[in-house]
Amino acid sequence: MDSEFSERNTFSETNPVKIGIIGAGAVSDYHHVPGIGIDPRAHLEIVCDASAELLKQRRSDWPVARTTTDYKEVCADPAVDAVIIATPNFTHAEIALEAAKNGKHVMCEKPLGLSAAEVRQMYHALRDAKVVHMTAFTYRFAPAMRYLKHLLDAGALGQPRHFRSQRFLDLPETSWGWRQYKKTAGAGDLYDMTIHRIDFALDLFGPLKSICGSVARFASRTQTATGESCAPSEVDDWSSLIGEFASGAVGVWEGTTLAKGYHRNGFGHEWAEVNGSEGSAVYRLHQPNVILLGKSGQDLAPVNVPAEFLKPEGSWRDPAEGEPATVFRYDLVWEFVSAIVEGRAAAPSFYDGLQAQVVADAVLQSHEERVWIDIPAEPR
Question: What is the CATH number of the domain that holds 189?
Answer without folding.
Answer: 3.30.360.10
